[in-house]
Structure formats: C-alpha cells, structure tokens
Write a structure and sequence with these properties.
39% of the residues lie in helices and 15% in strands. The protein is an alpha/beta fold. It has two domains: 148 residues, Rossmann fold, CATH 3.40.50; 155 residues, Rossmann fold (3-Layer(aba) Sandwich), CATH 3.40.50. Its EC number is 2.4.99.23.
Length: 332
C-alpha cells in the first residue's frame, strides 16, 4: 500500500501535519508513505524514519527561472515530478488546501484523493473526497479530521509529533537556559528590541542563560540584543534539525509566532508564545503545557503582515512573561 501526503509549506504547517503522519503509520505500519513538499520541508523531513520518499516541489526556484526565460526547464521539472508520482497510490491526502497542492494531487493520479471542501484558491477542484471542517479548529485537529473522514482510527487524546532524527547539538550551553525566538517574517508579529533586552535582563536575574535562535539574516538584529545583555546568539549557526535538541533541553522557549515556535512545542518543551495579528486557537503552540499571550483587542486577529500601530504587540508586557516563566519554573 502506498500513501502520498501533500503539505508544501510552511515549517509550522509541516509540523502540524506530523500527528497525521503518526496516525497513518500506526494504522498502516507496512505502508509506504511518501511526502511532497517545498525546499524548506524537504530539508526538515529528509531522513524521517516514517517516510519512504520525499519529493521536492521546487516552486521557489521558478520565479528566477521565469525571469531568465527558462520556461522549458520548469515544464521539464513538472513532467519529471509527474513521473515520480506515478506510484499507484491507494490514498492521496492534500493537507495544504491550495490550487498548487490540488494540482499535485491531480498529477499523482491515485485511487483516492482527499482534501478540504472549504479550500482556498480553487484548491478542491480535483478531489474525489471532500471534507468540510471548521476553520476555527486548530490546524493539527483539522488535518486529523481528514483521516477520521476516511475511517482511519484517530485518537484526539493521544496526539504526538514524530520529529525527524536529530543530530547531536554542536555547542555546549550551561543549564538552565531559556531559548528566545524574537524574529518573525511578518512585521506585524514582531515585538520590540527594547523589550527583548529588558526581558533578557530579567531572565538573567532569575538565574537563566539566555539563548537566541534564528536564521542567518536575523543575526544582526539579535546581536543588537546580545550586546546589551550578553546572551548567546545562535542565529545562522544551526540548521533546523539541530534546533530539536536545543529546544528539547531548554527549560522553556519564548517566541513570537513563527515556524520554529511550533518546532519547539513539538519537542515537548513548554513554550510562551506572543501573538498579535494571528489566531492562536488556529495556529498556536499545540498542547496544554504551552502559554499564549494574546490581548484580544477588537482588531485581533487581523492577519495583516504590516501594521502601523502594532497595539496588540505593544500591550504585551515583560512582567506578564516573567510571571509565566515563574509558573513554569515552579512546575519543574
């Protein structure tokens, strides 16, 4: 039996799909499960013990190729992808719900194609089975509902995240330590550098080492914080899989709404998440041990990438974060 999972992006969405992978592996332990994803997902999922094949949908390379007039190259890549996906799939599940993912499901030509009835961007044109779900459910639960519709045994009380095998962490960090993820791609999700500095100072006073994680492009921003408080700046020094042991061994992780926040939550370490323009009941850190700071202003959630006032983020105070840190410390 062969099963194809379609979840192209982003990192947080891919992590939210891992419980569905876990359910499929339990229900069909001898099945060959493949996953098609974009570049970031391919890097993260490579070598996952539950997956037979990981196929790359190279969408991010196409804009440059279009500018260079390499349309024929893109067509060849689509044809190659179609040939790779001709594997007589018994079940194809589109967890993405967009036209591009639905098109991939069509290319695969499996026996059963299932996806969301209320997909965006004409994302349900080629499904043979359509499932309507409440969009206010958390993403993890929405994805599991697809499997429940197919009469696959799903336990909503026993939800786990099978992470890929992680390499040893390459740096020594003195415990106890707290990891901070201060960077998000949306300007509207960002907190304020002055508040990060003051929060870090307060954490030092509580006896914690403060470690910052991020991408290479985040390094300068984080260095501005570390110059004031002496924290450890790991931005650009780790890959995604190396973050798994970093987060797992931390006392907790404090983060804005970003993909690595979900990675931290999946390791089982408590997360304090700062939410502004997005809806934590849909895409917050999944699990009762995590805490979300969300002000529930009339304008929230707005889902805007940019905001002039950022009132929802301004109202998040250092004292309430420290109060939650002390709760976690007491629980330990």
């Amino acid at each position: 039996m062969r099963i194809l999972m379609i979840k192209l992006s982003s990192l947080g969405d891919i992590i939210h799909t891992l419980p569905a992978l876990n359910v499929l592996k339990r229900a069909y332990p001898d099945a060959e499960i493949d996953w098609i994803t974009e570049e970031l997902g391919s890097e993260f999922l490579y070598g996952h013990p539950f997956l037979k094949n990981i196929f790359l949908f190279p969408r991010y390379s196409w804009p440059k190729k279009i500018k260079k007039g390499q349309i024929l190259t893109i067509i060849k890549e689509i044809v190659t992808l179609r040939e790779q996906l001709k594997r007589n799939y018994k079940l194809i599940i589109d967890f993405q719900g967009l036209f591009k993912s639905n098109f991939i499901a069509f290319l695969a030509q499996g026996e059963k194609r299932i996806g969301f009835a209320n997909s965006r961007e004409l994302g349900n044109l080629f499904y043979r089975n359509k499932v309507k779900v409440d969009l206010n459910l958390h993403a993890v639960l929405r994805y599991l509902m697809l499997l429940k519709f197919m009469n696959i045994p799903v336990s909503f009380k026993d939800i786990s995240f099978p992470l890929p095998t992680a390499p040893p962490f390459p740096f020594y960090i003195k415990k106890p330590y707290i990891v901070i993820n201060p960077i998000a791609r949306w300007q509207s999700k960002m907190w304020f550098i002055e508040k990060w500095i003051d929060l870090s100072k307060a954490l030092f006073k509580l006896g914690y080492e403060v470690v910052f994680s991020g991408r290479k492009t985040d390094r300068h921003y984080i260095e501005c914080i570390c110059q004031s408080i002496g924290g450890i700046n790991l931005a650009g020094k780790t890959n995604l899989k190396q973050l798994i042991p970093l987060y797992k061994e931390a006392t907790l992780v404090i983060s804005v709404d970003t993909g690595t926040m979900h990675l931290a939550a999946a390791t089982g370490t408590a997360v304090i998440a700062l939410f502004g323009p997005t809806a934590p009941w849909r895409t917050g850190p999944f699990g009762k041990e995590h805490k979300v700071i969300f002000k529930a202003l009339p304008c929230q959630p707005c889902f805007r990438r940019k905001c002039d006032s950022k009132d929802c983020m301004k109202r998040i105070e250092i004292e309430e974060i420290i109060s939650l840190v002390k709760e976690v410390n007491y629980a330990h």
